[in-house]
Design brief:
By secondary structure, the chain is of the alpha+beta class. The protein has a domain of 227 residues: FAD/NAD(P)-binding domain (3-Layer(bba) Sandwich). The chain is built from 11 helices and 22 strands. Helix 1 runs parallel beside helix 8, helix 5 crosses helix 8 and helix 5 crosses helix 11. It is globular and about 65 Å long. 48% of the residues are buried. The model has no long low-confidence stretch (mean pLDDT 96).
Length: 415
């Protein structure tokens, strides 16, 4: 079997890339060992975060770091045994999170985020997936006035610098918006630009269906079988082999199984996360996507029920699940919202691929013609899927890219 491009990885990044290429008339084979959208792309808060121009940084204050070191929080947890293997990543992550460097990174990161809604909208309309989308922003709620005031000041800065729309919420506003939340919250902040997704898996599947409608093929295969040929790339997939001029590595935290044997080294880490779905007690209803900012968990009204998500767990990618953050979050969430019974047999866990400078790797491989990289999107994989796919597709086809992608180049790790 031959094609123009092989895309490795059927998460939201790989699916979006394959779809954007197919929309440009390219024959594309999408290869994954499992079903599309079933790994990291399945479990998240379901946000297309237009406001997320500032990536999540590593704490800089010693007191904050010390509190995290106690390892008893919802928003962050770590495996002591994994620290030696991730220490280089964490050190660089901390270094890049310095205020001045972090602000420069945000400037470079913002153009991707800026186009997140528009590029998703094109695909949503073509895929007929409008019923999955809620265009009503999301909110953070605060337990103290100090936190509320601090976050409003930061929102004002983002509004000035990046044109992000927000609304400060009083205690009464929060109560009116979410009457089933407890009265523990003194106010809130509503980000007005983002869209929410009722079912991230269903959205990915809708994009896959559109991809196949345009002639794309989805095959099962092992990415480790990728090899270079005289004219491009070959992989064992389906019932045989596929050959193509170009190949895109969009395997998220598993990208190293392809890049490392080819001699590329990316200083990368993994932030694992958990979720669980719940029923509600009585006639309780959660009207919108809501984050308890000072406790570090998120409540999202998904098709499957109320989804409770946790923060980041620093651990080896393939270590067994340790959903202690979910247990902590559930205990707090039950005091603030009338959650009912658990609806999943066990907690879901996913692994977010992260770089120490908090920006994804997007662009051509430095030493292999026809090989392209698209991974490392951390917390914003769902947000950045279509725009990443578009700029990769434009680069492969020789078009002018929507934005300058040089800041995301693999060369920053592999000169």
């Amino acid at each position: 079997m031959t094609a123009d491009t092989i895309v490795l990885g059927a998460g939201i990044i790989g699916v979006s890339t394959a779809l954007q290429l197919a929309r440009r008339g390219k024959s594309v084979v999408l290869v994954d060992k499992g079903q599309p959208g079933r790994e990291t792309s399945y479990g998240n808060a379901g946000l297309i975060q237009r406001e997320g121009v500032v990536p999540y940084g590593f704490p800089q204050q010693f007191g904050t770091i010390l509190r995290y070191a106690l390892n008893n929080r919802i928003d962050a947890h770590f495996h002591w045994g994994a620290i030696p293997s991730v220490s280089s990543f964490l050190a660089k992550y901390w270094w890049h999170s310095n205020l001045s460097r972090h602000q420069l990174i945000a400037r470079a990161y913002a153009p991707l985020i800026e186009h997140s809604i528009a590029t998703h909208n094109e695909l949503i309309e073509e895929a007929g997936a409008q019923d999955l989308i809620v265009k009503n922003g999301w909110k953070e709620v605060f337990r103290t006035n100090a936190k509320h005031d601090h976050e409003v000041r930061e929102a004002e800065r983002l509004s000035r610098d990046y044109g992000i729309a927000f609304k400060s919420l009083s205690r009464a506003d929060v109560a009116a918006d979410e009457p089933n939340l407890s009265g523990d919250f003194v106010g809130g902040l509503k980000w007005q630009d983002p869209w929410s997704v009722r079912d991230p898996l269903a959205l990915t599947q809708a994009y896959v269906a559109l991809f196949e409608k345009l002639g794309g093929r989805v095959l099962k295969g092992d990415a480790r079988s990728l090899s270079q040929t005289a004219t491009g790339w070959r992989i064992v997939a389906g019932d045989g082999t596929v050959e193509a001029k170009d190949a895109v590595v969009a395997l998220g935290p598993w990208s190293e199984i392809v890049t490392r044997p080819l001699g590329y080294r990316f200083l990368a880490g993994v932030k694992r996360g958990y979720h669980m779905h719940y029923s509600t007690r009585g006639n309780a209803q959660l009207n919108g996507w809501t984050m308890d900012a000072e406790r570090g968990y998120f409540l999202a009204p998904m098709r499957q029920g109320i989804r409770l998500t946790t923060g980041a767990e620093f651990a080896r990618r393939d270590a067994p699940k340790t959903p202690v953050q979910l247990q902590r979050a559930e205990a707090v969430a039950r005091t603030t919202f009338p959650l009912g019974e658990r609806l999943d047999k066990e907690p879901w866990m996913g692994a977010r691929p992260c770089t120490p400078d908090m920006m994804p790797v997007i662009g051509p491989a430095p030493r292999h013609k026809g090989l392209w990289f698209a991974f490392g999107h951390a917390h914003h994989g769902l947000t950045l899927g279509p725009v990443t796919g578009q700029v990769i597709a434009e680069a492969i086809t020789g078009e002018k890219t929507l934005i300058d992608i040089s800041a995301y180049s693999p060369l920053r790790f592999n000169a």
